[in-house]
Design brief:
Strand content: under 5%
Helix content: over 70%
Number of helices: 8
Distance between the termini: 9 Å
Order of helices and strands: HHHHHHHH
Largest sheet: none
Shape: globular
């Protein structure tokens, strides 16, 4: 096991903060009143960013001998997932994807909770990641079938799906390197 108790604590805090940030992003996509209450949602995202930044900074200071680039990469990919709210001009597209987005955010939460558990079982994380892969495939099928034709910015969704796939790969590499 790579992480000592103090590191384990900050890794768990990191995953918790990462989960808060991804949940805030998906709330923006799922809630109808985002454009009317945009300042409130952006305030929540800002605070989730701050928590994640502080946890990442603490990991950096504790892990002077270990490379934490895998954690930083997850941070960057999660932030990239949040850009969809600026890139998509038609909010109706989010309504078409509501079920897929709900499933993806639930699976991201399950994966991050499994990775931050006091006694991490790699098999739990791997199972969550497999389910996440299936959910991303469902979103990609929706993109292939409907969104590619109806969405005003179809490539933006493709970038979002690619970011989800890269997030999955990065999390898988992190778990394999540190828990398996």
């Amino acid at each position: 096991m790579l992480f000592k108790p103090r590191r384990r604590y900050w890794v768990a805090r990191y995953f918790s903060a990462l989960n808060s940030l991804q949940e805030q992003y998906f709330f923006c996509y799922l809630e109808q009143d985002y454009w009317h209450e945009r300042h409130l949602y952006e305030w929540r995202i800002y605070h989730a960013h701050q928590k994640l930044f502080l946890a990442t900074q603490k990991l950096r200071s504790i892990n002077k001998t270990h490379d934490i680039s895998c954690f930083e990469h997850l941070y960057e990919l999660t932030c990239s997932l949040g850009h969809l709210r600026f890139r998509m001009s038609d909010r109706a597209v989010f309504e078409l994807c509501k079920n897929e987005f709900l499933r993806i955010t639930q699976l991201l939460t399950t994966t991050l909770h499994a990775a931050s558990a006091r006694r991490v079982k790699a098999t739990n994380v791997f199972q969550s990641l497999e389910q996440l892969t299936a959910a991303v495939f469902d979103l990609e099928d929706l993109w292939q079938g409907a969104l590619r034709v109806t969405a005003p910015e179809p490539l933006v969704f493709l970038f979002f799906i690619q970011d989800l796939n890269r997030w999955h790969q990065s999390m898988l590499a992190l778990v394999k390197a540190n828990y398996a």
